[in-house]
Each structure stands twice: as structure tokens, then as C-alpha cells.
């Protein structure tokens, strides 16, 4: 029973993140909300945490407090009709698979660009 509830919650969170990524592309979403969404989705999908997970107790605080807080704030900043439209589109099975590959490509590109910038700063 608990595993079903956890599975439903995980699916709901996955759909929320996908809906946020769709809202990021929507013209009706305000710029400040888009910036917050980009930070939230990037951080959620990023393999690097603000506080490393191996640090006892503190390591999971960013995952348990910071990320849900960013997501909640981003959701509050998106107009209701935009969010409802994005949530409906996020439930489409075809979009789920495509969005996963697109999100992975975007995150990989961001990290490659970040690595290039850091390497340039170190070597110059």
C-alpha cells in the first residue's frame, strides 16, 4: 500500500517537472517565472547538488527543502491557465518520452558549457 502511494507521488512529481519545462517554453509565462523554472528543472535533473549528499543530514536538505521550495515558488508564479494547459500536455505519453531526451540534452549542454567556461578561466 505504501509503495503504491510512493509510486503515485513520484509520478506526480515527474509530471510537475515536465509541466514546468513546458511552461518554460510558453510565451504566456512571465520572465521571472521562466528564470525560476529553468533553475528548478536544471537543479532537479542535475547530477551535482549544492550540498553534496555524502554530508550527513545536511546532504539531503537541498533535495528535501530547496528543490520542492523552488518548484512550489515557480508554480505560484505561473498563471493558472498556463499551468493547467502544461499539466494536461505533460500527461500525454508521447510527450513524456520525447521530453526526457530533450531535457537530458539540455542539461548535458549546460554542463558542457559550464565546464568549458571553468577550464578557460583556469587556463587563462
TrEMBL record:
Location of this chain's protein in the cell: Endomembrane system
Entries under InterPro entries matching the protein: DUF1232
A single cellular component GO annotation: endomembrane system
Topology class, membrane: Multi-pass membrane protein
Keyword entries, A-Z: Membrane, Transmembrane, Transmembrane helix
Domain of life: Bacteria
Residues passing through the membrane, by range: 31-51, 99-119
Signal peptide location: none
Domain DUF1232: 33-68
KW Membrane (keyword) present: yes
The protein's name: DUF1232 domain-containing protein
Organism this protein belongs to: Candidatus Saccharicenans subterraneus
